[in-house]
Amino acid sequence: MTHCRAILPPVGTQENRPLVGVGVVFIRDGRVFLARRQGAHGAATWGSAGGHLEYGESLEDCARREAREELGVSVGDLRVLCLSNILAYDRHYVDVEFLGDIGEQEPAPNEADGSFGEYGWFPIRNLPQPLFEPMRRAIDSLLSGQWYYS
Fold first, then answer.
1. How far apart are CA 141 and CA 27, in angstroms?
2. How many CA atoms lie within 13 A of 116 on its CB side?
3. Does residue 73 fall inside a structural domain?
4. Residue 30 phi/psi, 5° resolution?
5. 97: nearest Cα among 86, 83, 115
6. For residues 113 and 70, is the Cβ–Cβ distance under 8 A?
7. One digit per residue, pLDDT tens: the chain, 150 residues?
8. Which of 32, 40, 49, 133 allows an S-S link to 67, with CB 3.0 to 4.6 Å?
9. Which structural domain, as residue segments, surrounds residue 63?
């Protein structure tokens, strides 16, 4: 049976396949909600709620789950902003970014989660830098209308 181990990746390691990432962007009065990432890939960059698509989960359900878990908000309507093939932070993702409606809710990072540090609403044309790569593409999509990034 030891010959099988040579062709299968060891348990707990990442295979050489792209992952599926899903994010959600919140806009209010010309401002974008951003939080500084910490402890994960893209640490010290500015982004929003997002994460890995779970097996059997729809893209929309993933966006809503990540927003609830990471920022404590319930997302209503969602609109696809962009689809990207991202090679960054020593990872490969196929990423889908949504624009999400949270009404008047105020997002705030889940302190127990520890994914984010400082946060706030920033003017869309004067955002803190550096942006998390999926967020950079989502903002570009908002401003340019481009929806696919290879």
1. 13
2. 24
3. yes
4. 75, 10
5. 83
6. yes
7. 444 444 444 444 556 899 999 999 999 999 999 999 997 789 999 999 999 999 999 999 999 999 999 999 999 999 999 999 999 999 999 999 999 999 999 999 998 788 899 999 999 999 999 999 999 999 999 999 999 999
8. 49
9. 16-149
**Residue 10 maps to a domain:** no
Q: Which of 41, 48, 95 is nearest to 73 (CA)?
A: 48
* H or E stretch at 36: strand 31-37
Q: Is residue 72 part of a domain?
A: yes
Rounded to the nearest 10 degrees, how much is the dihedral formed by the CA atoms of 47, 53, 58, 64?
-40
Residue 64 tokens read as: 């809503």
Rounded Cα–Cα distance for residues 14 and 142 (Å) = 32
- Here the CATH number for the domain that contains residue 79 is 3.90.79.10
Beta-bridge mates of residue 63? none
